[in-house]
Hints:
By secondary structure, the protein is α+β, with helices and mostly antiparallel strands. The chain is built from 6 helices and 11 strands. The chain has helices at 87-91, 96-105, 123-137, 157-172, 217-230, 257-263, and strands at residues 9-16, 21-28, 45-46, 67-68, 71-72, 74-85, 142-152, 177-179, 193-204, 239-247, 268-269. Strands 1, 2, 3, 6, 7, 8, 9, 10 and 11 form a 9-stranded antiparallel beta sheet that branches. It starts with 8 loop residues before the first strand and ends with a strand.
Amino acid sequence: MKVMMLLVTILFFFCITTPLVAFTLTGNNFSLLQRQHATTKRPTRTTTEIHLFDGFENPLEKAFEEEGPLGKGITVGKVQIAINVSGEERVAKDGIFAKLAQHARSDTGGYDEDYEDGYGDSKLSKMCHDVCLTLLRQSDSWTAACSEYEWFKGNDAGKAESLYNQWADREASKFEKEYIPEKTSEISAGAPTVAIVSLVIEIQGDETNFDRAGYSFADTKSVLSSIASDCRVEGGDCLNAVEVFWTPSEPTEVLTERDTILDFPELITL
């Protein structure tokens, strides 16, 4: 579906649980237009709800909205994927954990050198695209997923940012410590586990699909594919913010079934 204004830089954090470890990629935004942060928290709309009258509640709500490359308004969405990860995959140099850690240590603020010539993308959008693509390549290992989203009018940008911050803080509050991960020495073996990867996204327009992740493999792939393609529209300028969390991160840590149920009760088994 959609999201907000203009974001450029990114900060990275490594969040530790007890005893699990999670990692965060945060997109902080520097807008061309100063905005005040709204404190009002909006109710969320989850894909586990059935909306018989979606699109008819406020027929004129979008009628006078200015349309951008990805439609009207702003969308805040969240996607979570549970993946079975083998011990070998956890220490593989080209595995999902290695790629996420690499993004954490990289500077993904700013733009490609050829951005001004119309060829490059924002580094933030390339990071978001790579995370989604990596998850899609792991689809055979998916065990559960879920998603939720909410649409805002363009002049409600502050409310959209407030909800984005609320959802990101809700995920971050599951862990006790945040820090930038350092590149560690090679580990020969890891422990097999279920890993949870969460993406919180704010993107302009109403066309990005955040609906029905977890209902089927096809629906979940559709959500990640939509995000992967839309986050790079207009060189990534439509992507206002993105934050990525995953747990566990340490190769020897294991996410138990109890941890999954307590911290991620919204996940739908695939």
